[in-house]
Write a structure and sequence with these properties.
single chain; alpha/beta; 9 helices; elongated
Length: about 200
């Protein structure tokens, strides 16, 4: 660069190329890093690595699931109930060999439940005889060879979106099957309900 004869001086492009070769290469990510915060969307089991806190609540929930036939997770809208179950409780149970079946009722709760239990053709039977829910869960436990947990997320939809099933039918239906803890084989089958506290009066 300091040579007086212009024809012997390197071009600016040559200087940049040579200096770049001397510098330590800087690794650049192939893609933008993923944001660890899903915003208003609930965390899922795939977000476990980004879910922190609530360690004491997690320990208490795991102990309750292991020792009780039915565990409620109740709170105000938006406090993170579904995120807590999906990104904290479910992964820990699955690591311990549990099979976790999650169900969001929607406007056809029994059809949804029958589908996630692997018996979609038995929706009418589950509606007519709620005790069959426990039998279906026991079948899942037998196939998996371990404990099974059925978590009904957004359980208030049983009343707010009940559709053809109707809240009166559900009163002796899906949730009632779980609320009767004696119908569950406590050695292998457990239930959980995630619901907003302001809908408990309708249960």
């Amino acid at each position: 660069c300091l040579v007086r004869a212009a024809e012997r001086r390197p071009s600016a492009e040559d200087v940049v190329r040579r200096l770049t070769a001397l510098l330590e290469p800087v690794a650049r990510p192939d893609a933008e890093p993923e944001c660890p915060f899903p915003g208003l969307t609930a965390f899922t089991s795939g977000d476990r690595a980004n879910y922190f806190g609530r360690g004491a609540e997690l320990d208490a929930a795991l102990e309750a699931v292991r020792t009780r036939p039915l565990v409620p997770v109740v709170g105000a809208s938006g406090v993170g109930k579904s995120s807590f179950v999906s990104a904290a409780v479910v992964p820990r149970l699955e690591e311990s060999g549990w099979t976790v079946v999650t169900c969001r009722p929607g406007n056809a709760p029994f059809a949804t439940l029958a589908a996630v239990l692997g018996c979609p053709e038995e929706a009418d039977e589950l509606r007519a005889t709620p005790s069959r829910v426990a039998l279906a869960l026991a079948a899942v436990a037998a196939r998996s060879g371990g404990r099974v947990l059925l978590f009904i997320d957004q359980a208030e939809e049983c009343w707010t979106l009940a559709g053809a099933d109707g809240p009166s039918t559900l009163a002796d239906g899906e949730l009632q099957a779980l609320l009767h803890g004696d119908r569950l084989d406590q050695r292998h089958v457990h239930g959980g309900v995630v619901a907003r506290h302001d809908h408990l009066g309708a249960a």
